[in-house]
Amino acid sequence: MHTTRTTHTRTLVAAAVGLGLVTLSACGSSDDGGSAQGGSKTVTLVSHDSWAVSKSVLADFEKRSGYRVKVLKDGDAGQAVNKAILTKDNPQGDVFFGVDNTLLSRALDNGLFQPYEAKGLDQVDGQYQLDAGKHRVTPVDHGDVCVNYDKKYFADRKLAPPVGFDDLVKPAYKDLLVTENAATSSPGLGFLLGTAAKYGDEGWQGYWKKLKANGVKVVDGWEQAYNEEFSGSAGGRKAGADRPLVVSYASSPPAEVIYGDPKPATAPTGVATGTCFRQVEFAGLLDNAKNSEGGKALIDFLISKEFQEDMPLNMFVYPVVKGAAVPAEFTAYGPAAAAPETMAPAKIAADRDQWVKSWTSLVLK
What we know:
It is a single chain. The protein is of the alpha/beta class. The chain contains 14 helices and ten strands. Strands 1, 2, 3, 4, 5, 6, 7, 8, 9 and 10 form a ten-stranded mixed beta sheet that branches. Strand 1, helix 2 and strand 2 form a beta-alpha-beta unit. The longest helix has 28 residues, at 186-213. The model is unreliable at 1-38 (pLDDT under 50).
């Protein structure tokens, strides 16, 4: 899976509005001489392409810890996880950030991480601690994969936008939805898992048969779906897109507002809150990390209040630390789903690959 390089979760902002979000990831000095801890001064973070942090926040960490942070970006989340597994005996870095609950079992089963109980973990909401007790990974953020809708399209036709999965197969919404390939895209996989969670082992395939009959369009990745096919996004409007429903994120509407030019008074898109699937993203200390002390310090930083409160407007995800403030734009235009579909990591591990195989045969052939 994830063999096609697709835009990962958090690049949605950049493309969503056609302006290009500057990812403020810093590649610090590669000077390995001397040290704050008696080892290397450089700690290397391996991540997906959507890693971003404010320069000032990263500089604060570097100043306090004595470490320089080097960032290596390895494409889409799935691609990055697979590469980390292939290089685990001689890893590219010390910490990996960006494995989510849909692919967590693959990383853990391949022994990618060494245990580390991060300082401040007691402040992370327990519902996100999916490896509690073993501490091979540390939760860093969460977000919801959800169907987004083009408000103007539905208002112009005096048609109520869909609310839940059941609505998407109704005749009123025929030929309106575009989604991503579950075999090549993180949100596409999330949407598939959401339907499996909703309809169960016996029902999800029947649901997808109805969705296919109702004209769902499947494209390789999020960027194509959101920016080229979805009529509600800034990019889609420029492209003359004709699909008013898209699988994206609960945080996509605030992105449309924040990066709009001119900035709209309200979000042009909405979220069908009954179609959401919760994703949790983790960081872990790589098993053969050359600078494990630096890696531990970096993981501690990722769940610090400073980073957690900086993260939403850089990566358009929600914090996992209790009491971390969420930007007003998120509250106004993209609140996290109140009751998203979820699935136990063990269930995902057991069935994910077969579900994707069955989905591919059912939907793409």
